[in-house]
Specification:
The protein has helices spanning 65-72, 95-105, 121-125, 127-132, 135-155, 171-183, 201-218, 229-232; strands spanning 21-34, 37-50, 54-58, 80-85, 88-89, 106-109, 189-193, 221-225, 237-242, 245-249. By secondary structure, the protein is an alpha/beta fold. It has a domain at 54-66 and 95-249: 3-Layer(aba) Sandwich (Rossmann fold), CATH 3.40.50. The strands form 2 sheets. It has a 6-stranded mixed sheet. The chain has a 4-stranded antiparallel sheet with strand order 2-1-4-5, with helices on one face. Helix 6 (171-183) runs parallel beside helix 7. The longest helix is centred in the middle third of the chain and has 21 residues, at 135-155.
């Protein structure tokens, strides 16, 4: 019989799982041919975004931020390097596979909205679902997607603007439509390139409040570009980019 008074109670330290990486750039370079010379924009960028993280990317004009975002959002191809979305190496996929993955996994909010002028607010919000399905399949699912888009647009304060085209909407209203469009298919990743840069301060604050509320409620991974340090401080992590390279990262190193 073992004397319980002499037993050693071992304390097992709680395991700390490494955060899940959802988006990564590794050694990404991008150059463009201008006349007889080649212009280097990105010089070997490494960047990781983690599950439910709110990351702000900052840097002066010409630092390469938008070029990097276009590559991470699968809108442009790097000259060298790799991009992974939820551990899938995207440039090893065919074009059709890559387009489907981008539409399902990444929502993109642009500074200048990029809404289609001939479509209503509701129709613009439905675009990702139209792209995701064949015409016949979309018709069969249209009611469900429409109800979802209506719920979002109403919650975003646009219940009276559903049939209005972009030219009939204010900048803040257009950006809210763009956010609804980006979120329609419940992507795990949201990329926002200066989403308040074309708005006045008060309107920009409201749009950013909406964006952060959706990010937190849905557990999205948000990659945000802004020049505004005041807005950047609302993010958990700030990365500074200059001359096509990451120069500083506020994240404490995370074990892998």
């Amino acid at each position: 019989m073992v004397d319980s008074s002499t037993e050693t109670n071992e304390q097992t330290a709680p395991s700390q799982e490494a955060p899940e990486r959802v988006l990564a750039a590794t050694g990404v370079r991008r150059s463009f041919k201008v006349g007889d010379r080649r212009l280097e924009i990105l010089h070997g960028v490494d960047l990781e975004l983690y599950r439910a993280e709110r990351l702000c990317l900052m840097g002066s004009s010409g630092a390469g931020k938008t070029t990097l975002l276009n590559i991470l959002g699968l809108l442009d191809r790097p000259t060298e390097g790799e991009v992974e979305v939820e551990n899938v190496r995207v440039w090893q996929l065919g074009q059709a596979q890559r387009s489907r993955l981008r539409n399902a996994k990444i929502g993109f909010v642009f500074q200048f909205y990029h809404l289609l002028a001939e479509l209503s607010a509701l129709e613009n919000a439905l675009l990702p679902a139209m792209i995701a399905h064949s015409a016949a399949t979309f018709r069969s699912k249209r009611a469900g997607y429409t109800n979802k888009a209506l719920e979002m647009l109403t919650r975003f304060g646009l219940a009276e603007r559903l049939t209005h085209r972009p030219g009939q909407l204010s900048g803040g209203e257009q950006q809210r439509v763009a956010i609804a469009r980006a979120l329609l298919l419940d992507p795990p990743i949201l990329i926002a390139d200066e989403p308040t840069g074309n708005l006045d301060r008060a309107t920009g604050e409201k749009v950013l409040d909406l964006l952060f509320e959706e990010q937190e409620t849905r557990g999205l991974s948000l990659l945000l570009v802004t020049h505004d340090e005041r807005l950047a401080k609302r993010c958990e992590r700030i990365v500074h980019m200059e001359d096509g390279l990451i120069q500083a990262d506020s994240r404490t190193p995370i074990p892998h």
